[in-house]
Structures are given as C-alpha cells and as structure tokens.
Amino acid sequence: MRLLESMEDTIKNILPDDVTKLKEQKREEGRRRALEIAIAKPLNTEHGINSTTCASKRRGNNRKSDRHGARNQHRHKQFARWILDKFPHIVQECSTSISKEGEAAAAAAADSNMHVLDVAGGKGELSSRLALCHSLRVVMIDPRPADISSVYLNSVVPKLPKKWQHSLEQRLEQTPTFIEDELNNRYSQLVTHFSFASDDICSGGDGGNCTPNEEFLFEDEALEKAVRHASLIIGLHADGATEAIVDAALYYNKPFVIVPCCVFPNLFRNRFIYVKDDHANNCNEHGQHSEEKKVAVRTHEQFCRYLLNKDDRFRQEELPFEGRNVAIWWDGK
Predict the structure, then answer these.
(1) pTM, full prediction
(2) CA 93/CA 108 separation, integer angstroms
(3) What stretch of H or E contains 188?
(4) Higher pLDDT, 321 or 281
(5) Which of 20, 93, 162, 180 has the most crowded CB, counting CB atoms within 10 A?
(6) Is the Cα torsion angle 314, 315, 321, 325 positive or negative in sign?
(7) Could you tell me where the DSSP H helices lie in the chain?
C-alpha cells in the first residue's frame, strides 16, 4: 500500500512540462533506434545474416531468396542518378544547397519556387532521395499520405555509403529533428489524384477545332500551380496517371520522364495504335489496300509506342534496372 501511495504521489507531482520532455526524449530515442536498425541492415547482410534466408533454410528451401520478380530494389537510386544526368537544369532551378560558387543561382531558384514534381510517388522513396540526398525541392502527388521520414530511415539510409550513415547519425545526435527540418524546407505532398483533362473537356465550338479550356484542366488549383512551377515532371510506374503526365507536360511545355508499367486496357478503351497488317487483302475506306490496321492498346510495348506517337520529339531509353525499365522522356525543347 505504501508503495502504491508513493507512486501516486510521484505521478501527481509530474508537471506538464516534465511530460512534454519525457515525450520528446522518447521520440528522440525512437529516431536513434530507427537509425541504428537502418545502419545495421547492410552490416548483417555482409556477415550473411538475413531473415529471409534463415526462414528459407528452416523450410528446407535452398534458394537465396523467396522474392519473386525482377531484382529492381535499387531502381529509385539508379533512376535518381539517371534523372540528374539527363536533366542537369533541375540542379540549378530546384537546389536548396548553397555553395560559394552557386549562391546567386540558389537565390534565384528560391525566388522562382521551382521544384521536381513526382507524380504517383507512392511511399515516397524517390522523393526522399531527391530531397534529402540531392538537396532538391520536391512536390509529390499521391492520393495516399506518405511518411517520408520513415521511408528515408528504413529504405534509403541502409543503401547509403557508410560514411553518409555515420554523418547522419552524428547530425541526429546534435539535432534530433534534423530530417524533419530538412523535409519541411524541401518537400511537400498534395494528397490527391493526378488527372488532366486534355481531350475530353474543351471550350465548345462547332468549327471542329477543340481547344482545351484552361479553367477546367485541373480540378484542384494547388495541383495546377504545382504543374506550372515544375522544373521536371516524373512518373516512375505511375499507373493510371502515366498518360496524364505526358499530356500535361505537352500542354505546359514541361520536361518530363515516365516509366510506364501497368496498361489498364479495360479502363482506358480509347487508346489505339496502327500496326503492320499481315493480311494484304484489307482495304481502307477509299477502297485502297491498307498495310496497317488499327488495334487497341493492350500490351506494355503497345502502350510505350502509343505514348511515343504523341510527339516526334519524345525519346525512349532503357534504364539500368530490371523489370519495367523503359523510360519515355522529353527535355521540353
């Protein structure tokens, strides 16, 4: 009884400020623990310690991993490098890091509010890399809120060089909110879908010339502003938003890169391409023999061709990772 009474007295004597300090200490301890786990992951792998491998051995499976599909776990790192190499202008327009040589350029970029627009960014690994590893301003669009700080600690940090990991650990010891502070300066998210009305919504008229009505291109004013201030629009496996990225980039004359993945042929039934016709007996509407026929877009290869056909200035390139790795891009010129 005396022990319980003493505990109650202790609880009563705790002030609100003390409670706040305790909570902050727990948060700091949690961040430090997350960083320690992130740093320990690659070390465990080097020493042959892998939970998936151990589980496989217990089940009598001699395979190195039970993971199916392509080995593309490093696609975000490789894609980020490719972006910086192919679109060097974003470093000047979107960078937040200041050097002695680039103070004027950084100040001009800050005034312009230019950013990289990551459409359908998912969990946010690509955005976290661009923002925290390359010091770029990033706006991500996805209908699901993303915890970028956790993604960075759990998915990005374990893949960084050890000297970067130790440097980050020291920064967090000095300033526990270092990651959150950096993200507040460089990153934001619009929790919404990316839909662009290019051909379906027009400004009327019976003369046959249908001009998109700018007022209705985007339902969300913040979304339209994000596109207007984008230095580059990217879509890595953006699913249903892939074609919308291309249409918006063309309309606003913005550089873009997309890596198409899913086609959704039953959802987008108005996509067609012309392919070589193996049957020479077909005739067109003028009674002439036609060497091509119109087919609906159903495969990944057809989808890439469909997107390329939108403009002769578009380019196609294979990225250095497995899986869906075909990039279609345009430098805006």
Answers:
(1) 0.72
(2) 8
(3) strand 187-190
(4) 321
(5) 93
(6) positive
(7) 2-13, 16-46, 51-58, 75-86, 89-94, 103-112, 125-128, 148-151, 162-174, 178-186, 221-228, 242-252, 300-308
Of the listed ranges 163-167, 189-193, 291-295, 323-327, the one predicted with least confidence: 291-295
Average pLDDT of 72-77? 84
Query: Closest by alpha carbon to 195, among 163, 153, 241?
Result: 241
| Position 211, amino acid | T
Tell me if residue 190 falls in helix, strand or coil. Answer: strand
Tens of pLDDT, residue by residue over 279-312, are 655 555 555 555 788 999 999 999 999 999 999 9
Residues 46/47/50/53 CA torsion (nearest 10 deg): 100
Which tokens go with 111?
């005034």
Query: Would you give the end-to-end CA distance of the chain in angstroms?
Result: 80
Instruction: At 28, list the tokens.
Output: 């700091």
DSSP 137: -
Among 135, 130, 80, which Cα is nearest to 110's?
135
Task: Classify residue 126 as exposed, middle or buried by CB count within 10 Å of its CB (0-12, 13-18, 19+).
Answer: buried
Q: What is the residue whose two structure tokens read 């699913």?
A: 239
* Cβ atoms 146, 131 nearer than 8 A: no
Q: How far apart are CA 114 and CA 259, in angstroms?
A: 22
Characterize 273-301 residue by residue with b for buried, 16 or more Cβ atoms within 10 angstroms of its Cβ, and e for exposed: beeeeeeeeeeeeeeeebeeeeeebeeee
Contacts of 166 by beta carbon, 8 Å cutoff, 6+ apart? 39
Query: Where do we find the tokens 């990005």?
Result: 156
Q: Record the tokens describing residue 308, joined without a space.
A: 């390329």
